[in-house]
Amino acid sequence: MFDYKLLAALAAVIEQAGFERAAQVLGLSQSAVSQRIKLLEARVGQPVLVRATPPVPTEVGRQLLNHVQQVRLLERDVQRQVPALDEPGLPERLRIALNADSLATWWAQAVGPFSAEQQVLFDLVVEDQDVGLKRMQGGEVAACLCSSERPVAGARSLALGAMRYRALASPAFMARHFAGGFALQRLVRTPGIVFGPDDYLQHRYLASLGIEEGFLHHLCPSSEGFVRMLEAGMGWGLVPELQASEQLRSGALVEICADTPVDVPLYWHHWRNGGQLLTQLTEHLRRTASLWLVPW
Q: What positions does the domain HTH lysR-type occupy (predicted)?
């Protein structure tokens, strides 16, 4: 039989990225959390954590995390069905991985009504759209919004639509680097802006224009900071239409090469046995995402 106090300790260490914060969340001493992890490892006969900074689960640790994520959601269903087991005043918390651009644009509008109606709290983990699924594979989150279609074992994926991006820069940047008009061969010699080392959107854009070589670029791991750097004339970059609509209307940003959008698909991944709450959230996103995303 599972000892869920031990599994809760494992989940807290991973979710809080360390033993100290896990102890604070669980209301235990750091030593007590460490002892629970050691006891869990003794029972399964192998390590459940790689004690790095932050700690990461081993393969068996990932399997246990996947299990405890689903159990938490199923417990909510039982509590609703058996009111005597319910704990009033303690709303459910959903831990979800999603890309920064969705968080900066449409996500809050989409899930705000659902959060209020269902009294659910969101614990959001921001990852690039190409790598967010790794969090779900690691058992760290109950659901994931990313660009990968193929679900992990035990999960389903749902195509919500696509975010449309446009390659933008400030008028001053264009005047400085393309005074005679846009020239493709000059683009790789002008600085770009990339969200992070896992962000290959700008690279794919260049490849779509026939440019396979690398390019000079800043790294800016902030959706809002990304746009501010574009407005300051520091480089060119791909921005969601949803995020840059005001700058495009005002002329603060312009498209570097007219009518060359990039559509990035977004898939919602959720556990098959994730309980009614995940099912309801999935159905809510199915109905509403098209208000902000383009068909895919």
A: 2-58
Please give the C-alpha separations between residue 23 and each of 17, 34, 65, 189, in angstroms, as whole numbers: 11, 9, 17, 50
The C-alpha angle 127, 128, 130, rounded to 5 degrees, equals 120
Tell me how far apart the alpha carbons of residues 256 and 235 are, in angstroms, rounded to a whole number: 11
* Integer Cα distance of 45 and 86 in angstroms: 34
Bin 74: left if φ > 0, else alpha if -120 < ψ < 50, else beta.
Answer: alpha
Exposure pattern of 186-222 as b/e (b: 16+ CB <10 Å)? ebeebbbbbbeeebebbbebbeeeeeeeebebeebee
Beta strands 237-240; 155-169: pairing state:
antiparallel
Tell me how far apart the alpha carbons of residues 110 and 105 are, in angstroms, rounded to a whole number.
10
Contact 127, 140 (CB under 8 A): no
Q: What is the pLDDT of residues 204-249, one digit of tens each?
A: 999 988 888 778 899 999 999 999 999 999 999 999 999 999 999 9
Backbone phi, psi, residue 143, to 5°: -155, 165
Beta-carbon neighbour count of residue 68 at 10 Å? 17
Residue 84 has pLDDT above 60, yes or no: no
What tokens were used for 203? Answer: 């690279």
Question: Do 139 and 7 form a contact (C-beta atoms < 8 A)?
Answer: no
DSSP state of 212: -
Say how far apart CA 96 and CA 105 lie, in whole Å.
16
Q: What is the pLDDT of residues 176-206, one digit of tens each?
A: 999 988 988 888 889 999 998 888 899 999 9
pLDDT for residue 81 is more than 80: no
Q: Which domains does the chain have, with CATH numbers?
A: 163-263 (3.40.190.10)
> Of all helices (H) and strands (E), which one includes residue 57?
strand 56-57
